[in-house]
Amino acid sequence: MIEQIEKVAIKSRAPILLNGPTGAGKSFLARRIFELKQARHQFSGAFVEVNCATLRGDTAMSTLFGHVKGAFTGARESREGLLRSANGGMLFLDELANWAQTNKQCC
């Protein structure tokens, strides 16, 4: 089954959604797809994995999208978000369903 998924993923230029319960191997498969695509020069950037279950409220937005100095109390310097860090590579949002349930008010 993994071989079939790898074949489809390598050929696809579209975003890929890996769906399954915790512990099903989504992280392993995402990293494997990244490695295969990177070996074929389909990715030039990094593999960035975010455990969305740890993101909370406004800090979640700052973590994902970044912020400029002074944007909020404690923002002493500008910081690039993880979305930009993954530019040209792959952003793997692990436990996204958990984040959506606990952060409905922020989005």
Summarize the structure.
This protein has 107 residues and is of the alpha+beta class. The chain contains 5 helices and 4 strands.
What does this 3D model show about the protein?
By secondary structure, the chain is an alpha+beta fold. It has one domain (2-106): Rossmann fold (3-Layer(aba) Sandwich), CATH 3.40.50. Helices cover 41% and strands 13% of the residues. The chain has helices at residues 2-11, 26-39, 57-65, 82-85, 96-102, and strands spanning 47-51, 66-67, 79-80, 90-94. The strands form 2 sheets. The chain has a two-stranded parallel sheet with strand order 1-4. Helix 1 packs across helix 2. It starts with a helix and ends in a 5-residue tail after the last helix.
How is this fold's topology laid out?
Blueprint: H1 2-11, H2 26-39, E1 47-51, H3 57-65, E2 66-67, E3 79-80, H4 82-85, E4 90-94, H5 96-102
Parallel strand pairs: 1-4
Antiparallel strand pairs: 2-3
Helix pairs in contact: 1-2
Q: Provide the low-confidence segments as ranges.
A: none
CATH topology: Rossmann fold
Derived structural class: alpha+beta
CATH C-level name: Alpha Beta
* Order of strands in the sheet with most strands: 1-4
Q: What radius of gyration results from the CA coordinates?
A: 16 Å
Strand content: 5-15%
The 3D shape can be described as flat
Q: How far do the termini sit from each other?
A: 35 Å
